[in-house]
Amino acid sequence: MEISPDAWVLYEWRGLRLTATVVFTWAVMALLVIGSWAVTARISEDETVSRWQVMLEVIVTRIRDQIDEVGAETPERYLPFIGTLFLFIATANLLTIVPGYQPPTGSLSTTAALAICVLIAVPLFSIARRGLAGYLRTYIRPTPLMLPFNIISEASRTLALAIRLYGNVMSGTVIVGILISVAPFFFPVLLQLLGLLTGLVQAYIFAILAMVYIASASQSRKDADGGANTETAKGD
C-alpha cells in the first residue's frame, strides 16, 4: 500500500520523476486560483449578493478575526499569507473525498516547504516592521551567548511545523489503510468523515502557529525597542 504521494510516480523521463505530490499540489493551487477568480470577479456591493460571495466574506472575516486574537496589531498585514496557508492546507486535506486523490500534505517535502515559507516570513515581517538592526539584535539578547540557542530555536520551530502536519496527515492515511483491510465497508466511511475534520483542524493549527511565530517575533522587537527607549529616557 502506497501511503505517500511521493511513492506514486506518474511519469519518468531521463531520471526526472513526476510524482503525485507535484501533480496534486498544482491541482490544489489551480483550484484555489480559479475558484478565487470566479468568486471575486462577481463581487457586488449591492444588498443582494451571491452565496459564494457570502461564503468568501465569512472565510476572510474569520481568518482576520483569528489573526487579531493572536495579538497582531494590523491583521490585514498578515491576512494574505496566513489565509493562503490555511486555504491551501484545508483544501488539500478536504479533497481526500475524491477517489484516487492523495493529499500533498501527506508528503514530507510539501510540509517542509510550507514550514520553510513560515521560516522566511517570520524575519521578513519583523524586519519590515522593526528594521534589520532591531531584528538581528534580538538574537544576542540578553547576552551574545544566546546566539546559537536562538538560531537552534528558529530551526526547531520549522522542523516541528513540518513534522507535525506530515505526521497527522500520514497517521490518518495509515489508519484508514489498516481498517480497510479489516472491514472494507463500514470503518472507511467513518474514518473518511473523521479525516475531513482532522484536515480542517490541522490547517487551522498550522496557520495559527505560523501567525503566533510571526506575531511573537514582531512583539519581541517592539518590547526590545520599548525597553531600549525606556533606558535611554532614564539616562537622560
Principal-axes shape call: globular
Major beta sheet, strand line-up = 1-2
Number of strand segments: 2
Distance between the termini: 71 Å
The main sheet comes to: 2 strands, antiparallel
Average pLDDT works out at 79
What share of residues is helical? over 70%
Q: What oligomeric state is this? A: single chain
Report the portion of residues in β strands: under 5%
Total number of distinct structural domains: 1
Run of helices and strands:
EEHHHHHHH
The helix-and-strand class reads mainly alpha
Summed up, the helix count is 7
Query: In terms of per-residue confidence, which ranges show pLDDT below 50 for 5 or more consecutive residues?
Result: 227-236
Radius of gyration: 21 Å
Provide a descriptive summary of the structure in words.
The chain is mainly alpha-helical and 236 residues long. The protein has one domain. Helix content is 75%, strand content 4%. A two-stranded antiparallel ribbon has the order 1-2. α1 crosses α3 (75-94) and α4 runs antiparallel to α6. The radius of gyration is 21 Å and the shape is globular.
What's the quick description here?
The protein has 7 helices and 2 strands. The protein has 236 residues and is mostly helical. The chain is globular.
List the topology elements.
Blueprint: E1 9-13, E2 16-19, H1 20-40, H2 51-70, H3 75-94, H4 108-130, H5 132-137, H6 147-182, H7 186-235
Antiparallel strand pairs: 1-2
